[in-house]
């Protein structure tokens, strides 16, 4: 009888612990910059395993997220592709002061799905033997703005404007190239050099001196200020497990 009672008590303890865990677990709505979609998927899996919380990602352009947040979109955390948007949201009372930080530094590349088209120095841009050059909308996407900066720094922007096709986000800019609608385009390194399955084609890693550093900041939005899952996600992003994933996708880290 004592053995049975002890077994029953142990089972009850397990169920009580599980019930407490399930009661504590929650979801957090995360607006994720398109360039960070793949690494965030892995981070979200690790986050759920470590905390019990579930991170629900909505992927898009940072500029569009800014407009949506101002209009009342129910996001609780923003993982932006820049540091300016989180700063503006804090100033406007839509993000929590002191709860922003740089989670990654992005790297811009010129990529083609065709092997050999893009050379190691990016001279293909000067030769101009292509019909379409894909970039993200520079008004909405920081990587698009970096692409324009690069072209202007090289003195090529005016001569190539007729060939430029714009995607709403860096994700769509990448899609134009991967589907062949553009022979080449400026995208994020993370999109063409994932650790599990590197993309085919040819690539030029754009020298950092040609564009303003792409500091990608996370922000705790006002809607998530009192939500444990949102705060837990930001804490997890600062940890070694998330940093390892971020670094594996070619991003830089600060600090």
TrEMBL record:
- Signal peptide residues are 1-25
Sites binding molybdate sit at: 62, 170
Question: What keywords tag this UniProt record?
Answer: Metal-binding, Molybdenum, Signal
The family database entries (SUPFAM superfamilies) matched by this protein are listed as: Periplasmic binding protein-like II (SSF53850)
A Gene Ontology annotation in the biological process aspect, one of them, is: molybdate ion transport
- Gene3D superfamilies in alphabetical order: Periplasmic binding protein-like II (3.40.190.10)
Coiled coil ranges: none
Q: Which domain of life is it from?
A: Bacteria
How does this polypeptide assemble, per the annotation? The complex is composed of two ATP-binding proteins (ModC), two transmembrane proteins (ModB) and a solute-binding protein (ModA).
Quick check: keyword Signal in the entry? Answer: yes
Name of the featured protein: Molybdate ABC transporter substrate-binding protein
Gene name in the database record: modA
* Source organism of the structure: Aquabacterium soli
């Amino acid at each position: 009888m004592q053995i049975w009672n002890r077994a029953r008590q142990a089972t009850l303890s397990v169920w009580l612990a599980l019930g407490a865990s399930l009661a504590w677990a929650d979801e957090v709505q995360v607006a994720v910059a398109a360039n960070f979609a793949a690494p965030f998927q892995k981070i979200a899996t690790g986050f759920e395993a470590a905390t019990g919380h579930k991170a629900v990602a909505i992927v898009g352009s940072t500029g569009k997220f800014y407009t949506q947040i101002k209009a009342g979109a129910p996001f609780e955390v923003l993982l932006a592709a820049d540091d300016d948007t989180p700063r503006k949201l804090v100033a406007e009372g839509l993000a929590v002061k002191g709860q922003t930080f740089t989670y990654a530094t992005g790297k811009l590349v010129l990529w083609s799905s065709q092997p050999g088209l893009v050379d190691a120095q990016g001279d293909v841009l000067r030769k101009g033997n292509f019909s379409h050059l894909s970039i993200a909308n520079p008004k909405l996407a920081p990587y698009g703005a970096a692409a324009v900066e690069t072209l202007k720094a090289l003195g090529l922007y005016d001569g190539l404007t007729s060939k430029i096709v714009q995607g709403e986000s860096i994700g769509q800019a990448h899609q134009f190239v991967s589907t062949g609608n553009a022979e080449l385009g400026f995208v994020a390194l993370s999109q063409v050099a994932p650790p599990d399955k590197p993309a085919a084609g040819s690539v030029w890693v754009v020298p950092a001196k040609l564009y303003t550093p792409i500091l990608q900041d996370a922000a705790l939005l006002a809607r998530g200020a009192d939500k444990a899952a949102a705060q837990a996600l930001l804490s997890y992003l600062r940890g070694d497990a998330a940093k390892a994933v971020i670094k594996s996708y070619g991003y830089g880290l600060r600090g």
